[in-house]
Amino acid sequence: MGVTETFFERVWSVAAKVPRGRVTTYGAIARALGSPGAARTVGWAMRAAPAGSRLPCHRVVKATGELSPEDAFGGPGVQRLLLESERVAFDEHGRVDMKRHLWIP
Q: How much is the pTM?
């Protein structure tokens, strides 16, 4: 009998593939996994990523380019700093420039 991956593990597998300098969305990951209505569950999976996993969770954003709530990365501005360190550009409203940086799994 084989081991079946949980939905969260499948989310983490996709998130691990997001290239440096690019972002994807909760919905894009859900669609890639064949569960188009599960964007919120993808968000829960990202919050539940194991500590020390080195997953690039900061590369997963809302479809509008908005970042995660401030507490998701340990403090205000942390996610943005991580993305800026990868040369991800933001618009005047603080959203990721999705035309330049969106990666679809």
A: 0.90
